[in-house]
Design brief:
Elements (H helix, E strand, L loop, with lengths): L9 E8 L3 H16 L9 H18 L6 E8 L3 E8 L17 H11 L3 E6 L6 E8 L7
Antiparallel strand pairs: 1-2, 2-3, 3-5, 4-5
């Protein structure tokens, strides 16, 4: 995937308190955004995207809340691409690594699911080094379709 989220025409931003309820709200909002952008709940990429998003927001809630009172989810899409970023203000930049061999959840699962969708995942540090955004970009036919 080469599409950069900042080059995609459809956008939505969601900022939530960094607490457990953020995971459900982010997931529900993602479902709504995808539906508004032409990707229904039966699309084969929706469930993996929701799982990836849930894991990333959960990580922010579990590991960043002490330094980041909010978590922000950025959504962007084009005709066949969907991207989302989960941002918090904790300075730790996790490594996105290989297959989830013998593990349940975590960033290994995020990497594996993203690759399974033929997508990409990157961690981008904030300019001041005090936060980061994990961006996932996946191909989804029908996004932004008229």
């Amino acid at each position: 995937m080469t599409a950069r989220p900042d080059a995609l025409p459809l956008r939505h931003v969601l900022t939530l308190p960094t607490m457990g309820a953020a995971v459900r709200t982010a997931r529900e909002t993602t479902e709504q955004v995808l539906a508004e952008w032409g990707v229904g709940p039966r699309h084969p990429g929706v469930d993996p995207v929701l799982l990836i998003l849930s894991e990333l927001v959960t990580n922010s809630v579990r590991h960043a809340a002490v330094l980041s009172p909010t978590v922000t989810v950025y959504f962007a899409a084009g005709m066949d691409t969907f991207a989302f970023g989960v941002h918090d203000r904790h300075p730790y930049r996790p490594a996105l690594h290989g297959p989830a061999v013998g593990t349940v959840g975590g960033l290994a699962m995020v990497s594996e699911l993203t690759r399974g969708l033929s997508g990409t995942a990157v961690v981008r540090e904030d300019p001041d080094g005090q936060g980061k955004c994990v961006w996932v970009t996946v191909p989804l036919r029908g996004v932004g379709a008229p």
